[in-house]
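Please, does this match?
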Amino acid sequence: MKKAVLLKGLFLLVMAAICLLATGCNSYGQDNNYLRPVDFVNHLNRNGIRVDAVRPLDPRPLSASDALELRIGESNIGVYKYDISRADQRTRLERIKQNKRVYFIGIPYPIYEVSGSFIVVGLDKHKDKERILEALRTFK
């Protein structure tokens, strides 16, 4: 009798620990869903990557929640944010993470990294690609 109660208690304790651990995990890496693309602009500048111009982009073609176009050097890149608190955007971001590309008007664009809620489009021929990707990885 005591053994059965002890086993049930142990089982409940293990299940509670698993649940607590699972709620703290995030399958999207760092938690930056509270940030905006303009915060990424500031992060780039703090990391020595000069952003020469910023203009709004329509996020709808990529099913994102927010987007900006940044001019860095001689090239433009797009920064897109997906609100992962919404199921549709979380699913879309997961698909992008798996496929490593997005389609804009039927043309595929490579996505080198999904960092939290953010992706960057247009890095394939950018001379500062590695520096921008490193800044994206540390964007929290």
User: Anything to note?
Assistant: The two ends are 52 Å apart (CA to CA). The helical segments are 2-24, 37-46, 87-99, 129-137.
